[in-house]
Specification:
The protein is of the alpha+beta class. It has a single domain, classed as Glucose Permease (Domain IIA), CATH 2.70.70. It has 2 helices and 12 strands. Strands 3, 4, 6, 7, 8, 9, 11 and 12 form an 8-stranded antiparallel sheet that branches. A hairpin with a 6-residue loop joins strand 1 and strand 2. The protein is globular and about 40 Å long. The structure holds zinc ion. The site of zinc ion has 4 residues, from loops. Zinc ion binds next to loops.
């Protein structure tokens, strides 16, 4: 018995030690990416996740959803509906891909949403991804109203969502901010960290001005760390019918992102 007791105490101690080392979030939520400069790989020692900040940007075509079971997009629609839009996240890199069908998503590959596969190029369009929302622009008449964008690393409340054009903050909800641009377009920013939202309803904002921090806030529902971004504008739907709808946003995002990467956002 005397020999067993110290061993038992040692086991208890080592159990406690483990508890104090592992962060509350299981250690998977943080990827240290160092400073804000471009270039070079930065490895997070805890997770072994590598964020390649110098990777060359690439994107798959508009309307080609990935994986293909995630829905049907607007194939061959290369129209840039918002030609001069500022990219809605302040800094690159950022990653457009599915939150539902990506690694760690409800219908995706098993794993954590912080998996490095979710933080690499190429971008994949997810406008019109399977949803129940009525969407005149989607082939099935229903779908995802915008695109989902992951900021440069899997850390919440760290990266700013910014105004895409000059306008007025038209709505602030529990995790949504809407901006009515001078062009008449309505831009929606979702899953922002509520306490970080620094604009007030009715306030005028300038293009590029900070709005709030990208997070995983969806009220009581669980989601990954990303910005859901969509745009409503009046478009001609054919047969003389013009309507304010959620427009295909992916090509405008690619266009805006390239300008951000070139240093003229
Ligand atoms: Zn979304």
């Amino acid at each position: 018995m005397r020999k067993v007791l110290p061993f038992f105490i040692l086991l208890l101690l080592s159990g406690c030690a483990t508890k104090t080392v592992v962060p509350e979030n299981g250690g998977a939520e943080h990827i240290e990416v160092g400073d804000d400069s471009f270039g070079g790989e930065v490895q997070d020692s805890q997770n072994g996740i590598i964020v390649d900040k110098g990777a060359k940007f690439s994107s798959t075509p508009a309307g080609v959803l990935y994986p293909s079971k995630s829905g049907k997009g607007r194939a061959n629609d290369n129209t840039i509906y918002i030609p001069s839009m500022r990219f809605p996240i302040e800094k690159a890199p950022a990653y457009i891909n599915s939150q539902v069908y990506g690694v760690g998503g409800i219908n995706g590959e098993k794993g954590k949403s912080c998996d490095k596969k979710n933080y690499q190029y190429p971008w994949h369009d997810n406008f019109c991804e399977t949803r129940t929302w009525g969407m005149p622009m989607c082939p099935s008449g229903k779908g995802h109203q915008g695109v989902d964008v992951r900021p440069m690393s899997c850390e919440k409340a760290k990266y700013w969502a910014v105004a895409t054009e000059n306008g007025i903050i038209s709505y602030i909800g529990s995790y949504t901010v809407s901006l009515r641009g001078d062009s008449g377009r309505i831009y929606r920013y979702m899953h922002l960290d509520s306490p970080s939202v620094i604009v007030k309803e009715g306030a005028k904002v300038k293009r590029g001005e900070r709005i709030g921090l990208v997070s995983d806030n969806m009220g009581g529902t669980k989601t990954s760390i990303h910005l859901h971004f969509d745009v409503q504008q009046t478009v001609n739907l054919g047969n003389g019918v013009s309507k304010k709808v959620f427009v295909q946003i992916y090509t405008s995002m690619v266009d805006a992102y390239k300008r951000l990467l070139n240093g003229r956002p």
